[in-house]
Structure formats: structure tokens, C-alpha cells
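User: For my dataset I need records formatted as: sequence, then C-alpha cells, nothing else. Please produce one.
Assistant:
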Amino acid sequence: MKLSLLQTHGLKILLTIIKSGKETLTASEISKIEGLKTGYVGKILFMLRKAGIVSTIRGKTGGYYLAEDKKNITLYDILTALSPNKTEVDLCPNIKEGEDCTHSIDCAIRPVFYEAHNYFKSLAKSITLEEMAYRERDIMNKVLDMKKHYFNKERP
């Protein structure tokens, strides 16, 4: 799976909000910290707000803040919020929506992409924004544990 720039920047923006130490951050403040255009940051924040991940306070001391506790927001929630036009599963680059693939009956690629997608989806659902912000070592251990579990299961 390849993350889009929108998803990557969205993750960085959320981590910036958490690590800032402030109650709220404006789109302008975030854009300066991340080196991104304010309009682009605003677009990402709009998508995250629409998904219920961030909220906003208007006024002189306003800005954006997490709508939920960082322990309850998963990597999967964020990636899904920032990929509204994609189908959940991009199993094969040869399959376009509404079209059949010449290998639709006997395909060796589909099960590989399907398993890789399921592995990533499980991993993304198990990693919280809090872990991403403060516990890189914990995430690495989680990835390694999941790798052992997922890839050591018996194959038919």
C-alpha cells in the first residue's frame, strides 16, 4: 500500500497538533511548522473535521484540536478520512471499477494483494495516534509481533 501525500501530510499535521503543547493551533501556525501552504493545510483539516478527528474553535484564541482522545484515534481512521475517493481495497492495478480483468478466473496476484491489504489494515487499526506521537519503540514492537503472528501461521 502506498500512502498519498494527503495522507502523509494529514498524519504530520495531527502529530504537530499533539506535540505543540498548545490547546489549539491555527491552520497558519501548522503551515509554518510543516512548511506547507495554508490553503492545503486548511483542506486537510476540513477533511479531518468532516471525519470527526479534529474540531475547531473560532475567535482570537481559536484553532484546531483533536475531537477525540488521541488514544481512540487509529492510523486506519486517519488514512480512511484522507482517502474519500478511493475504494477501500485497491487489490490490483489491472482491475478498474466496472471492468473485468483477463485473469479474473485464475489470478495469482489477487490473493497476494488481498493478504497484504488485510495485514496492513489490521496493523493500521491497532496503532493509535498517541502511540505514533510518543512511542515509536512500542509501535515497532507491535509491528514485529504482528509480523510474527501473521507470517508464522500455517499455510495450506
